[in-house]
Structures are given as C-alpha cells and as structure tokens.
C-alpha cells in the first residue's frame, strides 16, 4: 500500500494519465446497441435496475390512479368488476415485486461497491443475468394486462380463489410463473451483495467501520435468502395444482388452503421489511450528511437493523388472525408484532439524537427524510394497533389496513427512496437535480399522500371492505373516497415532478463535483459519475467516515500493485478486511442475456405445458456452459 | 538482536486469531435469534398436540431450552467482550467489542421476546380455538 496525494487518482503527469487511461480501457463497457447486452459493470446494471423499477413504479401508479378514479363515487362505471380485479392485482404485484425490491436492490448494486471501495461486485455476470431475468419477467407480467389475461385474484393469490375452478384462464398461471422467475433475480442479487460485502471491502474497513447503508443491504440480502424460497415453493405448488392437477391446496383432496397463506405470508411479511430495511440505510446516510456529524449510536443502529430483520420472520401469522387459529398460537405472533416496534423506535431515537443540536441543512433529500419521519411513525402506530388481535379482528379486510400498509410502505420505503434519488443522483449522473422542482415534489407528495390515505383509516373504521370495485350511495363513503382520489392525483403530480426532474436535470442540471454534499462515505471519493473502474486506486480505510478524516490526516492511503490490463479487485478478510488476495473479474459478455432468454422461454412456456420445464432447463444449461467457459486471463495464467 | 518479523507469518497468526474470535463473537448473533425462532415456531406448531395430550410440560421444557440457548449466547458474547481488551490492533479490538456487545444485547432481546411470548400461556386458555 502506498500513500498518495489528496485524490484517489494516479499522478497528474504523463505516466499517471497513461496508467489511468489503461485502467479505464480495461474496465470500459462496449458501446452500441449490441454492446448494451454485454455490459456487466455494477454501475451500468445498478442504473438499469433503478430506471426499470421506476418505469414499473409509474405504470403501477397509473393503475392505482385508475382504481381511485373508479372508487371516487358510488356505483362508478370506469372499470368493470373483472378489469378492476386485474388492475388491483397487477398494481399490488408490480409495486411489491417489480418496483420496491428491485429499486432497493438496484440502489444497493450501484452503491455498495463504491461505498466499500471495491471496483465491482463479486459476480458481475450473475448481476447482469439477474437484471435481464427481472426485465423479461416484469415486461411479460405487465403485458398480460393490456392483453386482458392478467391475474385477478389479488397480489396474495389466496386459494381456493386462485385454484383452476375459481380462476380459470391464464392469469394466475402468469402470476405464479413470472413471480417465481422474477424472484430468481432477487436471489442472485442477494447472493452477490452478501459475497461482495463480506469479501471485497477496502482494506481496513472492518465490520464496525461499514456504513450503515451497507449493513442495511447486508440484512436485506439475508432476508431475501430466507424469505424468497417460501414464495417460490408456494407458487410452484400452486402452479402444479393448476397445471398437473396436484392437490396441495385443495381441501377436498386432503390439501390445505391455509398452507398457502402460511407459505405466502412467511415471505410476504418479511417482504415489507426487505423493502424497509435498505430504506433505513438511506435515511441514515442522508441524516448523517445533512447534520454533518457522525451517526449517534452506531452499534445500536446495527443491532436494530439486525433485530428488525430477525423479528420480521416471526410476524407472518398476524395476517391470518381471522382464519380460526388457536388463541395461544395467535398470542405468540401478537407479542412478536408488538415487539418489532422496539428496534424501529431505537432507530428513530438514534436519528433524532444525530439531528439534535446539529446545524441541519434542509436540502431536498433531508426534506424527504423529514416527510418519512411523519408518515412512517403514523404507519408504525397503526401497525401496533393492528398487531393486537382484538383490534385486528375488527378492522381486518377493511380500508384501515389499506391505509396502514400504504403509510408503512410509501412512508417507510418510497419517501426514503426519493431521498436517496435526490442524494445520489449527482454521483450517478454528474449533475445536480433541480432544487426548486425537488421542493415542490416533496411538498405535493406529502400533502397528496396524506390526503389520499389518511381518510382511508376512517373509511375502514366505518366498515368499507378492501378489494371492492364499488359501493352503494347509502353507505355514505362517497366524500372520503373523493377526498382520497384528489389526494392520489396530487401525489401523482408530486412524484411526476421528480420523474421530470430526473430527465430534465440529466441534460440541464448544474454540473456536480465529486462530493457536493460533503458526505463522509467512500462513494463520494471518486468522480461524478464514477470512473469505469470506480477508483483509479482502491482506497484504504482508517475509520468509519474516511472523507471527513482524510483532510485531518492530510493524506490518503491506497492499494498499490493491482494490474491495470485486466479487471482486478482486492479480496479482504470477512471481519477485519485485511488484504487476502486479488480477484480477477470477468469482462463484458452477452451470455448472461442469452441465459436469461433461455430461462424465460422455459418459465413462460410452463404456463402452457410442463414440457417447457425441460426445454428451459436444457436451454439454460447450454448457455451456462458458454457463460462459464474459461476466459482469457485464466488461460494466460 | 531482535528477529525480523515475517509479514506472511504475522498474517497467518492474525487469521488464526480472527477465526478463534469469530466463533465467540458471532455466538450471540446466531444463538439468540435461533432460540427465539425455535421457541416461537415449535411452540406454535405444538399447540394442537399439547391440547390433545392435555399437558403443557413439553412447552415449558421448550421454553427452558430456548432460554438456555439465549443464556449460552450471552455468556459467549460476554467472554468475547472480556477477551477483546487484549486484542491488537485497535480496530480489530473495536470490531470484536462491537460484535460482542450486539451479541449480548441480542441475547437479552431474545430472552425478553421468549418471555413475552411465554407468559400469556398462563393467562389464556391454551386450547381455545383448537379443534379437538
């Protein structure tokens, strides 16, 4: 390791510039249309994940608006019952599976290697494969709606409603196969994020020096590993019930419909926290930067993150309080559901203490975070209410629950995600987002959100059931529904402004320097946007806020000795991040894309015939062989 | 004359030390959630069986086992915390200290969780709602 000057760059002389140019050539992604399908760099794949997720978010948002339009007045006829059910199902499924998880994973894929001072993810090709799987699965799933064959049994697909008898047609088949397929993408991302965090951290970045965001991504990845198999198994069983007449969920044949609910919610509840946990990491990053002081209670925050991840797996039965489970069984889950508010409270107090007495800069990311505090705490309070069995039995399947989970999901995940977009956009694009548009966007979203979803608490208490496509005028729910619809439109304008801001500022935004917010973490140590290789020389870390301590130390230490003519990154030990070896990373290739296409042919075909399982299997196998064919550096070695 | 230190040998010693510490440092992280999850999962699954048997002793035994696991995790974390005083370099010491502290607090939290889930069994009719 060698000491260099104030930047993580090579010397600014002819030799230094030549070295940097060589590294950049080595890490460059091919250009052009066909080149696009060969990219493997994490910055490219992460950006694609986020962009695709945002497009899916916009589509699912429009579906939400359609639902609000239909419900804005009693006996409205904007959507017929079957179309409403399809719209509702696709809205929920797209928001959860196509937007929330991939957006968080995309941000993680983009940021984690930069934050830990690595040059790329541990498995760049797997990264690309995951993206194509997600893209193909998502597009096919969404296409089912305009084709009129979308699933209509809700995002939860309860049996027996989703059995062949009550849901004929291809809708549920599309849901089961595409969701299983898309979850493969989530699993690949989780695996590589875990390996990257454990093994590719910059020398010196021991576990206690990892940014909280990286901890949050680590917890999220482990949660995905444990939760996703459950929904994959459940949807595979439902697929088989519908396709080859197995009877897993058919009560008359000795199957158990309740088993579906157990399997689905064993995934479904942690899913909420899979989305929420990385959002906590984003909030911490923003709070630290805009308070300009280290986070209060680093250890407590890590403990809280891990506790949330753990306890979230012990709550699933609270979605099933009304299914006739034994008293004692329910009491376990009531206790656990109330218990999860403790680590969540710890986090809130850590953030408050970080902000307490600080000279807070009220920039747009910070305003999103403040909105998050208000909305999420409200959602958390109603969460404690519905955790209680007697209360839950009163409001179960009413709009109270719809209000609660939107407060938690939008407040707990989408607002922080917006904060993250405004915060890291300058790093990813090299330009600042418009501050004025950003402030309008926060204001409108906050007002619109509360106007849309707060009245739903009252609607629920008045007994308005969920999942209904209309209601009678005598029920007197019209005014509050109208209010909610107006709120939804304002919310859409608020988010729409951010979308426009993202596009507009990419061309017209003020040029951003390396560290426009004066943040302390490593992603801000490189150029904006980052170099192809992330860092010309990998940094060495001496504390948990390197960018604030480097000026104090007067120097930065970097890793030396890596080859410039091939893609190399440091491998370090799991606990203390001591240098261990060098990993040679693979270059651009089209095989992950071809493999994803082969696998999607298999999954899509499964909707029509079980034989496609074999076709997909062999197709994927052949493409994997080409994918893993020994590549040049190893042959040379 | 002082012998020159071999960097490779030093690395090996450090790696061995890291491996030894890892077990006790991770103990609380693994044992506490395992104890809580076992208690909740098995406890939930055994309710109909307990009602058929007409006794709660297996559930009490499960609780004792889970609490034992928690205490085991806490003790190992405490041991790691005490040992951390002798660990060099400084950042390794801080890392072990953080992991051990979290393990200790995790064990306490899991113990609380088990207790909160266990106590209602004395207050409510265990078998209410069970098909017999």
Describe the structure.
- Chain A is mainly alpha-helical and 637 residues long.
- Chain A has a single domain, classed as Cytochrome c oxidase-like, subunit I domain (Cytochrome C Oxidase, Chain A), CATH 1.20.210.
- Chain A is 64% helix and 3% strand.
- Chain A contains 20 helices and four strands.
- Chain A has a two-stranded antiparallel ribbon with strand order 1-2. In chain A, strands 3-4 form a two-stranded antiparallel sheet.
- The longest helix of chain A has 35 residues, at 81-115.
- Chain B is mainly α.
- Chain B has one domain (21-121).
- In chain B, 81% of the residues lie in helices and 0% in strands.
- Chain B contains four helices and no strands.
- Chain B has helices at 7-53, 57-83, 90-118, 120-123.
- In chain B, α1 (7-53) runs antiparallel to α2.
- The longest helix of chain B is centred in the first third of the chain and has 47 residues, at 7-53.
- The model of chain B has no long low-confidence stretch (mean pLDDT 83).
- The chains are: A mainly alpha (637), B mainly alpha (132).
- The interface between A and B is large, with 36 and 42 residues.
- Chain A: The chain crosses the membrane at residues 49-69, 89-112, 132-154, 174-200, 212-239, 272-291, 298-319, 331-355, 367-391, 403-425, 437-457, 477-500, 611-629.
- Chain A: One of its GO terms (cellular component) is plasma membrane.
- Chain A: It is found in: Cell membrane.
């Amino acid at each position: 390791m060698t000491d260099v000057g104030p930047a993580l760059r090579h010397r600014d002389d002819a030799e230094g510039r030549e070295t940097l140019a060589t590294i950049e050539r080595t890490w460059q992604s091919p250009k052009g249309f066909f080149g696009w399908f060969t990219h493997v760099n994490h910055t490219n794949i992460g950006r694609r994940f986020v962009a695709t997720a945002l497009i899916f978010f916009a589509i699912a948002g429009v579906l939400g608006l359609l639902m609000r339009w239909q419900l804005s007045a009693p006996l409205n006829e904007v959507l017929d019952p079957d179309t409403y059910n399809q719209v509702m199902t696709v809205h929920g499924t797209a928001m959860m599976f196509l937007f929330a998880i991939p957006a968080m994973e995309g941000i993680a894929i983009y940021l984690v290697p930069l934050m830990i001072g690595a040059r790329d993810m541990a498995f760049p090709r797997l990264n690309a494969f995951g993206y194509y799987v997600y893209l193909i699965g998502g597009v096919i799933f969404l296409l089912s709606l305009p084709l009129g064959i979308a699933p209509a049994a809700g995002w939860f697909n309860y049996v027996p409603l989703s059995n062949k008898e009550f849901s004929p047609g291809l809708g549920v088949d599309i849901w089961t196969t595409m969701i299983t397929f898309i979850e493969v993408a989530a699993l690949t991302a989780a695996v590589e994020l875990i390996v990257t965090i454990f093994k590719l951290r910059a020398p010196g970045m021991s576990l206690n020096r990892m940014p909280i965001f990286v901890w949050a991504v680590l917890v999220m990845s482990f949660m995905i590993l444990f939760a996703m198999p459950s929904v994959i198994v459940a949807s595979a069983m439902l697929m088989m019930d519908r396709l080859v007449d197995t009877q897993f969920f058919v009560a008359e044949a000795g199957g158990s419909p309740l088993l579906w609910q157990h399997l689905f919610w064993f995934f479904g509840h942690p899913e909420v926290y899979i989305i929420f946990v990385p959002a906590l990491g984003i909030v911490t990053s923003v709070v630290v930067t805009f308070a300009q002081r280290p986070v209060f209670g680093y250890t407590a925050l890590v403990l809280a993150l891990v506790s949330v991840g753990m306890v979230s797996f012990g709550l699933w039965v609270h979605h099933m309080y009304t299914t006739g489970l034994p008293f004692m069984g329910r009491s376990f889950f009531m206790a656990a559901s109330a218990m999860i508010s403790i680590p969540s409270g710890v986090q809130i107090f850590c953030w408050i203490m970080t902000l307490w007495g600080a000279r807070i800069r009220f920039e747009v990311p910070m305003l999103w975070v403040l909105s998050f505090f208000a909305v999420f705490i409200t959602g958390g309070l109603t969460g404690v209410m519905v955790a209680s069995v007697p209360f839950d039995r009163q409001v179960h399947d009413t709009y109270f629950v719809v209000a609660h989970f939107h407060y938690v999901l939008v407040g707990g995940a989408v607002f922080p995600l917006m904060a993250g977009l405004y915060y890291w956009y300058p790093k990813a694009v090299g330009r600042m987002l418009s501050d004025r548009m950003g402030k309008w966007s926060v204001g409108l979203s906050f007002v619109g959100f509360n106007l849309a979803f707060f009245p739903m608490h009252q609607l629920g208490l008045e007994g308005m059931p969920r999942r209904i496509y209309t209601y009678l005028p005598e029920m007197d729910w019209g005014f509050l529904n109208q209010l909610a619809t107006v709120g939804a439109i304002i919310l859409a304008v608020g988010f729409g402004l951010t979308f426009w801001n993202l596009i507009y500022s990419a061309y017209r935004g003020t040029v951003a320097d390396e560290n426009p917010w004066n943040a302390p973490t490593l992603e801000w140590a490189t150029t904006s946007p980052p170099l192809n290789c992330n860092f010309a020389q990998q940094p060495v870390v001496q504390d948990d806020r390197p960018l604030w301590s480097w000026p104090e130390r007067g120097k930065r230490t970097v890793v030396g000795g890596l080859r410039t003519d091939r893609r190399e990154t440091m491998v370090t030990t799991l606990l203390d991040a001591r240098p261990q070896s060098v990993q040679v990373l693979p270059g651009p290739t089209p095989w992950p894309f071809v493999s994803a296409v082969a696998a999607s042919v298999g999954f899509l075909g499964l909707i029509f015939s079980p034989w496609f399982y074999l076709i997909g299997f062999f197709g994927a196998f052949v493409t994997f062989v080409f994918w893993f064919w020994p590549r040049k550096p190893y042959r040379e070695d | 004359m002082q012998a020159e230190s071999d960097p490779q040998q030093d690395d090996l010693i450090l790696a061995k030390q890291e491996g030894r510490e890892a077990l006790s440092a991770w103990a609380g992280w693994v044992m506490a959630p395992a104890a809580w999850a076992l208690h909740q999962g098995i406890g939930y699954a055994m309710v109909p069986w307990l009602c058929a048997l007409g006794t709660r002793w297996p559930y009490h035994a499960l609780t004792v086992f889970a609490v034992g696991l928690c205490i085991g995790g806490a003790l190992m974390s405490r041991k790691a915390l005490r040992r951390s005083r002798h660990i060099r370099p400084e950042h390794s010491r801080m890392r072990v200290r953080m992991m051990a502290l979290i393990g200790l607090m995790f064990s306490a939290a899991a113990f609380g969780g088990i207790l909160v889930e266990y106590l209602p069994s004395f207050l409510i009719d265990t078998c209410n709602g069970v098909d017999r």
